[in-house]
Structure formats: C-alpha cells, structure tokens
Amino acid sequence: xxxxxxxxxxxxxxxxxxxxxxxxxxxxxxITLSAIKACIGGIxxxxxxxFLSKEERRVNKSYYKWYxxxxxxxxxxxxxxxxxxxxxxxxxxxxxxIGMVPVFTILFLIAFFKRKSxxxxxTSILFGFAGIVFLSWPTHGFQDLFNSIQGNILxxxxxxxxxxxxxxxxxxxxGSSVIHMRNVLLIANAMLIPMSLVFEQSFxxxxxxxxxxxxxxxxxxxAGVVFMHYLIG
Length: 233
Description:
about 0% strand; single chain; mainly alpha; globular
C-alpha cells in the first residue's frame, strides 16, 4: 500500500476515535475504557496473527523489555489521559491537541536523542499541525480551547507520551508489526484490567447496546487496526 494512502487511512481512523470516546466516557471509567480498547485491540491482532507464517510470528526475546515500555507510553498512559481529558474537553479540541504528536516527536529527537532534523521535515510537520488546527478548530473558538486547562494538559501529556513511544518503536526493527503491537496491547491489558477492577469496579458496567458497539469500534479500529498500520508506516 502506498505510504501516503496508508497515512491518510491512519489519520481518518485515528481522528474518529475522539467522537466515539465522547459518546461513552460519561458511563465508562477512564481505566476501564482504556482496558476495553486494549483488550479488544489485542484480541483483534491475536486473531490476525493466526494467519501469519511461523517465521512472521517469531519474536526476538530481547524485544520484550521494549514491549513493556511501549505498552506504558503508547497505551496505558495516553489512553487514560485521553479518556480523562475528554470528560471536559470537546472532541474537536482533543483531536487538535493530539495532533501535536509529530511536533513532540521532533522536539524529543532533537533535545534528548541529538538527532538532526531537516528544515523540510520541520516545515512539513508544522504545516500538517496547522492543517489539523484549521480543520479541528472549536466551534466557540478560544472559549472552548481554554475551557478546561486540566483536560488540555492531560491531552498534551497524551501527545507527548505518543511522541516518545514513536521513538522507542524504532527499536522493533525486525518482525511483524501485527505481532509487535499484539504483544504491546496484551501487556498493556495485564496492567489495565486489574486496575479497572480494583479502582472502578468495571464488572458493574451498565451500558446501552449502542455504547457497546462504540466500544467494540474503538477496540478493533482505534487500538487494533490503526496500531498495526501505525508501525508499518
């Protein structure tokens, strides 16, 4: 698949998650929502993995330490930050703030990894972010943007976490992206599910059928499919 088509596909899937989160976040705990997304996404990739060859399913044992780190910064922290942030922040603002991921990635590379970036790279990222701001600008302008400072901070922290995990993902330079992200999501699950049971009594969920469908969509597409393509891209 052409990388630009792939990027467009990822953007469309990724951007739509904020709409679905807004539909369920009032009735599902933050940790529970994160656990459900990671669980369904992990099961989705587990199923896809059965169709891969034995060679593709093979995992370098040295990768497991990176899986744990990536699970924290790519799944556990940002999923929770986004869910909590969207309790008080409109989905349009959330999409705009999470759109800062490439900006933070470049900043981290320059500041902490001493990696040089070319002017065209920086310019393209800034123009891309400007496009996200233009398309996602809140209906009420600055009133919506600054309505919840705490929510905005959480979403920015989520973007920073995603940016850092993107850099760490480069460590997984061999093997199948399906298997890598399956392992990351399942490890994240091992962290999130016990937390959701202890802190949010997630076994007492009472959802409408439509909300259940939204959760399944979030898990399959926004945690499973998009993460698989994310690593390919």
